[in-house]
Amino acid sequence: MSSSLSGFAPFVFLLLVIGGTARPLYPLPGKGDHGTKQPLQTFRPYNVAHRGSNGELPEETREAYLRAIEEGADFIETDILSSKDGVLICFHDVTLDNTTDIAKYKEFTDRKRTYEVEGVNITGFFVVDFTLKELKSLRVNQRYCFRDQQFNGKFQIITFEEFITIALDAPRVVGIYPEIKNPVLINQHSYWEITSDTYLDYIKQYVVGIGPWKDTIVPEVNNYVMTPSDLVARAHAHNLQVHPYTYRNENKFLHFNFSQDPYKEYDYWINKMGIDGLFTDFTGSLHNFQEWTTPNRQDDKTASELLHKIAVLASAYE
After folding, report:
1. Selected catalytic residue, list 92, 243, 255, 287
2. How far apart are CA 232 and CA 247, in angstroms?
């Protein structure tokens, strides 16, 4: 997700596709034996792996998602774009320039284009101009220079189908959290419109929650968090969950109120703000915090209620 308005979106958990006893909506490759698995925990806020465990490994790669699952993610999140030949892939940017090694491929030099994206002219190597085979020939790099660079150039771009299969093959139930990039419908409205009670009341008919940028819930001034808005309370009043983004360990992303300590930030958002899930680049850190403060336990009643709500929402589109 990004810090723009387009990052705010209603969401529907895609859990029925990968539940322990649920049948996929369409055939998918995988190990085949998905049997009865440990169910999704529902007694504490969800640990949502933002583009996988991308604080450690290049984002939206198989390896980043596997690491996130290993570290305790409840959901794995991805961004969805289409290749030139119509295959859905997991990739954040509309261009390949920032997080792949495309610059070293001389055969692609003439593919650079300039397109208008959300009213702005952008020049680069656009995902939509490359076939899946060509995209698969590239390797993904770490987005931020201050993170570990040793895995640059080692991992492939994956398809959305491969992403689903990673969740299906997990040793426990892991939900998927896809985001469609550049949603035109949402972008047609102002932030105040899409966070109004009227809008929240409308979307609760077909979604289970919202995913706002955390600074729109609690504004910041000079890197200090200020008085919170009432968005979380209002969303909960409409029976909607709230999953803000993005939680990162590095000092440059932490407000001064938290003394450069990500655990203090987690504590503030979970225990004071009462949110229902967190998008994090560091799945392991959030999991360790939650294990320390809220050890794992079984809560079949809550899990059953959540699955029932998802089933009701999904049945409306069958």
Report:
1. 92
2. 17
Which pTM value belongs to this model?
0.86
CATH number assigned to the domain comprising residue 59: 3.20.20
- Is position 280 within any domain? yes
Mean pLDDT is lowest, of 30-34, 57-61, 103-107, 115-119, for 30-34
Judged against a pLDDT cut of 70, whether residue 74 lies above it is answered with: yes
Tokens standing for residue 181: 């990039």
Instruction: Look at the chain and report how many structural domains it folds into.
Output: 1
**Catalytic annotation present for 287:** no
Name the residue range of residue 270's domain: 5-81+161-315
* CA 226 to centroid of chain Cα atoms: 26
Rounded Cα distance between 229 and 217, Å, is 5
Half-sphere exposure of 247 (CA within 13 A, CB side): 30
Question: Rounded distance, CA 268 to CA 258, Å?
Answer: 9
> Is there a catalytic annotation at residue 236?
no
- Catalytic entry in 50, 243, 255, 287: 50
Give 120-178 pLDDT, tens digit per residue: 999 999 999 999 999 999 999 999 999 999 999 999 999 999 999 999 999 999 999 99
Over the Cα atoms of the chain, what is R_g? 19
